[in-house]
Amino acid sequence: MKSIRLFFILLLFSVYGYTNTVNTGHAEVSIIKNSATIENKDELFIGIRMDMQKHWHTYWKNPGDSGGPLKVKWQVPNEYKIHDVQWPAPELIPYPPLMTYGYENFVIFPFKIDISKSQSLDYINANIDFLICEDICVPEQAIIKTSFQDLIIDNRIDDWVLKVPNVTLPVISSYKDNILELRFSYNEKIDDIYFYIEEKNIVLYSKEQKLIKEENNWLLEVFLEDNPDFNEVINGVISINNDNYIINSEISHKNGTVNSLSVLQALLFAFIGGLILNLMPCVFPIISLKVLSFVSMGGESKEIIRKHSLSFCLGVVLSFIAIALVLLFLKQSGVLVGWGFQLQSPIIVGILSILMFLIGLILLTDINMGSSLTRLGKVGSNDTSYSGSFLTGILAVIVASPCTAPFMGAAIGYALIQPSAITLPIFLSLGLGFAAPYLVLSIKPELISSMPRPGKWMETLKEFFAFPMFATSLWLLWVFSMQTNTEALIILLISLLLISLLVWSYSKFNKPFIRIILVLIGIFMLSYQLIQISNMKIAELQSENTLKSWNEDTESIYQAKNQAYLINFTAAWCITCQANDKIALSRPTVKNYLKENNIEYIVADWTNRNEEILNVLNKYGRSGVPLYVYWKPGMTESKLLPAILTEQIVLDSL
To answer: How far is CA 288 from CA 15, 246, 294, 567, in A?
Structure first.
């Protein structure tokens, strides 16, 4: 490497071009496009291409120890908007003893264009300032006046768009002894890693970054400047084995909550949380039916009771393992999700609403459609099939997902940042905790004899349980309405009406072929209705009522103003959240206390998918809602309130 001779030329080279390529002295600069056209597109990309002389380079947004980033001033018609540059992941450009970040020999900087009207982009003017260096550094400028039609076609822009990181890697960041610590999960061996920090004057760029393999995660140590000027959030790009990820993490003096857990503690918390989950309102209708079905077996042999209990437990445990595998697959695919993620899909919510409504009808009419799942309504029958118990276990786990029991949040949050070998046992422990009462019943079937004897009261109680099912369906309809729009809600209501008609028709006709036709008609109509909902534009599926009072910088903004706050991370589909709101947070006593003590109450609504909210949940060691974060002046770090609230708990915590 040649020695550094930083020499800034006082005379700024300014080159004007009415053609699309300008030679600025050490680079040929042009504006390019790919082969796509403006027609029928809501957005497209153009790029500033720099073909530099050999060994010359320009810089990333944070150039490192020296240098400066690209700056562009655009002029385009009012119907168009050009966003800020989308920075491709940089490379290391060492100048011992300095280290810089940038691009050598060749680079394309992508820019996204928003199109509001279908008109021609008849002029594009760009004033491009950049610093280009080899042994000396030269500030150069290119002024290009052209039109979209005259832009050079270079499909390499698509490759450079792909080099822009778009996947966020969950990390827990802290600092101590002038070292920034980044902890994260990565399931493969790491051969090469580097963290490119976005903020300036924080780290020692030329100091080697140190990677350490801890018991359950990786630790990257980055050396800091003396008295670094920290913000509340660390941003940047981390390159791992040539794959690049976005880093966006709040930083603290201490390790995060997740790291305070050991594997054994997480397993214990998961088991206890799963056990308590049986008492949560989400699963009450399903669990009640299962308990009632066990009561109906009072006269059966111990072996039959044991097999039904084990079938139910198997359905529960396999469902939790399946959820863990889906979460791991999505995490490896770069999709960030959390507990209850499936209920962020209006299609899933709609299907569950239909399912709960159908089960309610079956409980009232006592019909048997031949499916093991519908035998939830056949309490007291002589059906000896174990598939019904197995499917009931699956259904119980599905409807349990809107609830977060005490201890569950910390355990699942810990599990989702760990390698697969840790994540799966924690979810298995959660499933075993949920299934524990029924495992006990399989070991001691004689416990059934301590329950009331079967009788007509069971039929009446079974019919009564139809109404909690209808209530669950209504709640899911409300969630669906929050996620979608009036048109989608009407489609779903029509689907429920058609189901009612088909169930009534099914009960009136006894001929098998007519019943088969009715079932096929029902499946076809429901499939058609759900396809209609799924084909709606994404914009229509977003809640218009989502509160805008929260964003990822809310905490740092309020702390900078010394303003106390209580943030409620919630979702319409989270029953625990809604119960806490009604029982505690919306009570006049709590509202008055917040007002009198000048505590700002902020709602972060996770009803629909929001990666910013998930990033903050991960930072606090959680993967789902509810989460309640409290801070006031004088506190060194935010305080987390319990997952289950009462008025007194809230007042005592504040």
So the answer is: 78, 46, 10, 34
